[in-house]
Amino acid sequence: MKNAVGREIPQSIPGLNKIRPFQGAFAYQPTGRLAGPKTPVHVPGKEKLLKSLDQAIDATGLRDGMTISFHHHFRNGDYVMKMVMDAIARKGIKDLTITPSSLSAVQDCIIPYLEQGVITAIETTGIREQLGNLVSSGRLAKPAIIRTHGGRARAIESGETHIDVAFIGAPTCDTYGNINGVDGPSACGSLGYPMVDAAYADQVVAITDHLVPHPLYPISIPQTLVDFIVVVDKIGDPNGIATGSLRISNNPKELVISKYAAQVMEYSGYFQDNFSLQLGSGGASLSAAKFIKEKMHQQGIAASFGVGGITGVMVEMHEQGLIKKLIDVQTFDTPSIKSLKEHPLHVEISASFYANPHTRGPIVNNVDFVILSATEVDLDFNVNVLTGSNGKLMGAPGGHPDTAAGSKVAIIVLPLIRGRRPMIQDRVNTVVTPGETVDVIVTDYGVAVNPRRKDLLDHLRDSSLPIMEIEELQRIAYKMTGIPAPPPPTADEVVAVVEYRDGSIIDVIRKCK
């Protein structure tokens, strides 16, 4: 079957029950009902605080074939997944599906459990490093499912993904199960991703290294959603959880791209008082803030809110009155964690509130501007952020497709050439964000506007930007690098499916030869 972005999708894929090809960003309008969480009963006097992870696993009734979840707010400082999987493996439990909100390099430590059959399936929003190589080489028993942040929340709330046990790393937890992420030695800020897991999982285990008396305040995940609590020595490494502060780049190429992106915003027709925005954590996205701030000061305007993964750059803009509210699903650095704890107009939200397309309105639908990075783009404005030129998994859709679909102006920033390879391809290796939701491509050599957005093109003609067709940008790149070699051949075996945010399949990833 060929889907709406021209990708061949097999009619059946071993290990997957449902094959629904992508038909367009807003084509699928479900008419069913949301799944309901299990009805729990916790009688007075029943103890939630257990002595060990082994005891908690026994208490949940975890057994072969079940699905467990984790969150990735600890990033490369995470200790929780390994300690949980170690305990599960000791008990001889097999054939588990894990559905972490994302996987970082630190999770390479669980590879032995995939090889031993403890884990046989993965559903996540990103796979990198050696885990990415393992999946790309076809060594996982079932094809991995790669979702967006909004798509993961949708899958859980619709019942498409049923979580038997959610293991939640809790930076601070009280003795009755209230959790927050802003206190304790492993503070990570917002707990936007496990909020959905806690609400829909059959059993929830909070794992903490900072137990406090009941009741805790503030509360991110309430006691009404937590079954058991386990105290351990450390749930994470603060140095891997948050950087000191993500800063603006000094790279000349990134600064040119950032300046162009800010100019696109300025002349778009939407850059006015109370606009809203999301800035990524990449160098060019963060650096754009420098030029955006200058233009906001010059025009005397402020943003109504900034949303997404919050960084110190956005916190500075908030403190300067340039962004009135910060809406936080993931907190990236130390200044942002401090801000979430102290500033009343810096609030945390769940991944569903952020980007779930099958609700009465995720906040991405009210974003005016989003600046997003890319691995590569193609002549149809499709974007890849998941695989490298060799076809191997090395990234994450995250909220990329969600914010591109919801925003009024989706700006993709990337260098025209990266490592002697042109970044504008005839066809991207893997389609993650469809071109119909991408409005502008910004490179260090020029800016291309999606022909669908004639309104933007009319506005941007009044700027000094080097506007050109995307084909011209590609020709400039080819003059410098030559025509790139085609990607290496792949086998027929599908090792991962890439879901669009509505659950349809936008692309598949085949086994690397």
UniProtKB/TrEMBL annotation:
GO biological process terms on file: acetyl-CoA metabolic process
This protein's UniProt keywords: Cytoplasm, Lyase, Transferase
Catalytic reactions of this protein: citrate = oxaloacetate + acetate; citrate + acetyl-CoA = (3S)-citryl-CoA + acetate
Localization (cell): Cytoplasm
Main location: cytoplasm
GO molecular function, one term: citrate CoA-transferase activity
GO cellular component: ATP-independent citrate lyase complex; cytoplasm
Enzyme Commission designation: 2.8.3.10, 4.1.3.6
A Pfam entry, by short name: CitF
PANTHER family cross-referenced by the UniProt entry: CITRATE LYASE ALPHA CHAIN
Protein name: Citrate lyase alpha chain
Species of provenance: Formimonas warabiya
